[in-house]
Design a protein that fits this description.
Radius of gyration: 23 Å
Helix content: 40-55%
Distance between the termini: 40 Å
Largest sheet: 3 strands, antiparallel
Number of strands: 7
Number of helices: 7
Structural class: alpha+beta
Number of domains: 2
Strand content: 5-15%
Length: about 230
């Protein structure tokens, strides 16, 4: 079984390891050695790796108990966590992105409640700009990671967008929201994810994307098996 182990010192570089070995020792030993190297690097620069603020998460591994997946750092045993936050994105051990969507939904509805309190004082153009800043930007942030997720996982984010459209257009909760989304030119959540992926591929194809993205793509015309006879 393929798995990835990640240790995240919150104020130090993230440590990622990947392996297909089925041995428990061979799974935990590399991550412990790697974090030990990070600790030594910090010590050589008069820094201290705080084990209490270090998180360990295992991806794609369900066969071991939490005890077997524990990692020892500086005489402290770290138990794996169910989710970690990295660059504002919540990654869970099963990579189903439900934690990230839940956190995003909660944050967006909080902002919507605040904006609703001042809706009567602002014009439509102003409230639309505020919604784009505080709501749509959250929904679009790193949304390429949400590609191919089931509709049940994406539904909470779509409810946020529907509520935002009702706020901008001053609709009631029982009013049909599709005409408002069309009027605002807002793509549905799944379409926004597809648009982001298409944009990334386009940028990589024309050579304006970062090298790490361009190097992942190969034009069909350059593949011998796809060339016309």
């Amino acid at each position: 079984m393929n798995f990835t182990t990640t240790a995240l010192p919150r104020r130090h570089p993230d440590v990622h390891l990947h392996s297909t070995d089925r041995s428990t020792h061979n799974r935990t030993a590399p991550i412990q050695r790697c974090i030990s190297d990070v600790s030594d690097w910090c010590g050589s620069r008069r820094l201290q790796l705080n084990a209490a603020k270090t998180e360990v998460i295992w991806f794609g591994l369900k066969s071991l108990s939490d005890r077997d997946k524990a990692v020892v750092i500086a005489n402290e045993t770290l138990q794996p966590v169910d989710s970690v936050r990295n660059l504002g994105v919540y990654l869970d051990s099963e990579l189903n992105m439900r934690t990230h969507n839940t956190k995003t939904t909660e944050a967006c509805f909080l902002q919507l409640r605040r904006l609703r309190q001042i809706r009567c004082l602002l014009g439509r153009d102003v409230i639309a700009s505020l919604v784009a800043t505080f709501i749509l930007s959250r929904l679009d942030y790193c949304n390429a990671l949400l590609a191919a997720l089931p509709q049940s996982t994406m539904a909470p984010l779509q409810r946020v967008m529907n509520a935002a459209a009702r706020l901008v257009c001053n609709l009631r909760s029982w009013d049909h929201v599709t005409p408002a989304l069309i009027e605002l030119h807002w793509l549905p959540i799944t379409a926004r994810v597809q648009y982001k992926l298409c944009l990334l591929v386009h940028l990589a194809a024309v050579g304006t994307a970062p090298d790490y993205l361009k190097n992942m793509l190969q034009p069909v015309s350059e593949r011998a098996s796809q060339r016309a006879p």
